[in-house]
Amino acid sequence: MTAHLVHEDRYGSVIDYPDDDYLESRWYDGSAAFTTQSFNDRCVLFADIVERSGRTKVLIDAVQFGMSTEDLDVDFRDTQVTPRLNAAGLEKIALIVPADFPPVGAPPAPEGPADFPTAFFATRSEARAWLES
């Protein structure tokens, strides 16, 4: 499996797996320092990477994601990021989250205006298996 580091900063990294047609976004402990604006900026950067890469799948390792979900700007995601991911042809997003996160095990479903489903998993192996299905 060939992997290429595309971006890295104190918040996390983005890794391209061209042979498997997916990008991985790994959040680091530094993501606790996100403000709403800096997180929105990072989401725009990620949309840029998805558009340039042509990948159709995304794996997000959010186990170490530290920003409070209360500070997420869902309207920004729905109007500024998701339409770009739709236009780029994204087919699915798998999120690895702590096992006690409520959506773990729920059926994959689009979030907001997404044309693609998002699914939540407690393990990397489950997330990868779903991406490959």
What layout of secondary structure does this protein have?
Blueprint: E1 4-9, E2 12-17, E3 22-27, H1 36-53, E4 57-61, H2 74-87, E5 92-96, E6 118-121, H3 124-132
Parallel strand pairs: 3-4, 4-5, 5-6
Antiparallel strand pairs: 1-2, 2-3
Helix pairs in contact: 1-2
Would you kindly provide a written description of the structure presented here, covering whatever features stand out?
With 133 residues, the chain is of the alpha/beta class. The chain has one domain: Transcription Regulator spoIIAA (2-Layer Sandwich). Helix content is 31%, strand content 24%. The protein has a six-stranded mixed β-sheet with strand order 1-2-3-4-5-6, sandwiched between helices. A hairpin with a 4-residue loop joins strand 2 (12-17) and strand 3. Helix 1 (36-53) packs parallel to helix 2. The longest helix has 18 residues, at 36-53. The two termini are 17 Å apart. The mean pLDDT is 97.
Q: What labels would you give this structure?
A:
single chain, 133 residues, alpha/beta, Transcription Regulator spoIIAA, six-stranded mixed β-sheet, globular
Query: How far is the first residue's CA from the last residue's CA?
Result: 17 Å
SSE order in H/E notation?
EEEHEHEEH
Query: Into how many domains do the coordinates divide?
Result: 1
Structural class: alpha/beta
CATH topology: Transcription Regulator spoIIAA
Q: Main β-sheet, in a few words?
A: 6 strands, mixed
CATH class: Alpha Beta
- In order across it, which strands form the biggest sheet? 1-2-3-4-5-6
Low-confidence stretches: none
Categorize the overall geometry.
Answer: globular
- CATH architect. name: 2-Layer Sandwich
The helix count comes to 3
Rg, alpha carbons: 14 Å
Q: How many beta-strand segments?
A: 6
